[in-house]
Amino acid sequence: MAESTTPLRDGETTETEDVTDGFNLVIDALKLNEINTIYNVPGIPVTDLGRMMQASGMRILSFRHEQNAGYAAAASGFLTKKPGICLTVSAPGFLNGLTALAHATTNCFPMILISGSSEREIVDLQQGDYEEMDQLAVAKPLCKAAYRVLNAEDVGIGIARAIRAAVSGRPGGVYLDLPGKLFTQVIDADEGAKSLVKVIDAAPSQIPSNESVDRALDVLRTAARPLIILGKGAAYAQADEDIRDLVEKSGIPYLPMSMAKGLLPDTHSQSASAARSLVLKKSDVVMVVGARINWLLSHGKGSTWGDHPKKFIQVDIEPKEMDSNVEIAAPVVGDIGSCVKSLLDGMGEDWPMPSSEWRDEVRSKVEINVARMASRLENNSDPMDFHGALGVLRTVIKERPDAILINEGANTLDFARTIIDMYKPRKRIDVGTWGVMGIGMGSAIAAAVETGQPVLAIEGDSAFGFSGMEIETICRYDLPICVVVFNNSGIYRGMDTNPTGGADVATTVFVKNSRYDKMIEAFGGVGMSVKSPEELSHAVNEAMDSGKPTLINAVIDSSAGTESGRIGNLNPKSAVVGRKK
Ligand code: ADP
Ligand code: MG
Predict the structure, then answer these.
(1) Closest residue (by CA) to atom 8 of ligand 1?
(2) Ligand 1 in contact with 321 (CB < 6 A)?
(3) Pocket residue to mutate for ligand 1, from 144, 298, 314, 316, most atoms within 8 A of Cβ
(4) Do residues 423 and 256 lie in contact, with contact meaning Cβ atoms separated by under 8 Å?
(5) Does 240 share its domain with 148?
(6) Atom 24 of ligand 1: nearest residue by CA position
(7) Which end of the chain offers a freer environment for a tag, N or C, measured as fewer CB atoms within 10 Å?
(8) Residue-number span of the structural domain to which 277 is assigned
(9) How remote is the CA of residue 266 from the centroid of ligand 2, in Å?
(10) pLDDT tens digits, residue range 212-247?
(11) Residue 301 counted as domain residue
């Protein structure tokens, strides 16, 4: 058909039923693959795409900044095992979304960043188009895969490839480049419908070999002081029951990485969280399930791990992960669901428990440390310190195990991670592998949207600043999110002074006595400012019960934090003291 290959001119529309266009094909392809939620910032050339998506019944959440929409997409990927979609405008919007895409890739979360782009002919000749940028080339090194669709006929294939790349194997971020001209390309409707691809079995099971499973069990059987480490890959896998069975059947003490907390309740008798130093140092066989032995595990060596010789078993979908930091005596490569099933089968009915000496040693260390912590959590100092405030929030989560906890900051993160027990899988989203600041409001919004559960976001005042404007988004969509800003008037602490005595405050200090709660009131949300644990408890419970968008300004003693929280050792310090201008 002659008219079917002619792009529409500006403002021109078609009523003809037998044609379709790029806009509709993108929407149809996503819907065909059961992708119905989009995290976006509207603008050229995707404004109409967002409108049409909404008109078609999809849920489109518009953000104030692409980075936050991107973090929402990344969190959604972690929670749902489907690619979270972030939609942005060209060059600057694309770049803003790219940080989140790289974050998703680094964390092994499936996500697709879809960005509109300028005209290829002009971009490639570098003639200075509106928002000109070769986005595909820029994205490539920062994600798992990157594709561009030039022809309406290829939209279906492009989206299918993006979905498959995001969720299969080790999940990650995918970039999909859609030039503005694509959207208005018109093709025959039947041809269009035929060009769409429903992705069958997007993340096929990857069964581990029998040999690898037997080898792992042989190594585990020889252990005198075994340890299991569960990572966020294990949480992502949604093999919750089998993972729990594996841990319980083996009787082995386990350590959850921060986003694996709750796979088994943190109060479980085999949890070694409160004896982390002891088990890392003394264990002789360590089975790592869905965690990388990266900086968060001190690369598997050095003083954290002590002098006891160790053997590692690693369960991971990515073969290249093996031996990345230490020798892996028994690699088990496959998807965690299949690997854990095979391990369970191989263990049979009479698997020997680890020695009671080892279990008792770990258990008594846990009990001592838990008791020591308990007294600190009950302190009622006014203004609060981190322990007093987190003691209260710990109870809030204990009483509401279905709520999702979002957590970022330095001290606010480190203390909350150890203090707040999680009871169910995938209820904790934090800064992830990079320790990135800014994931807060995007993750909170995705958590509320994807799960329908109440969300508690515990934010350092600095961390909150990276995404704080999204409280308007939270109010606009009336989401059940309670944000608690731990306001200690600065980064790490609010006490530093300018060494020159000049008028500028120190580099790590914010405005004293800030009232973050006033910000949310501007958008119709509920704001409260609290100074004592008792006031905090009252305010948070009220917010969680009401489900209303709420921001609580929690005043924290500005001398209570430590530099860089628990990773101060990573921050290079000058040995030249007292340097003058
Ligand atoms: P943590 O930060 O909690 O230690 P990491 O992000 O370092 O966790 O590691 C997660 C690991 O889980 C990655 O090596 C990734 O390849 C792996 N992984 C993710 N999903 C799966 C899955 N479904 N099956 C097996 N391994 C997975
Ligand atoms: Mg602070």
Answers:
(1) 291
(2) yes
(3) 316
(4) no
(5) no
(6) 335
(7) C
(8) 210-364
(9) 27
(10) 999 999 999 999 999 999 999 999 999 999 999 999
(11) yes
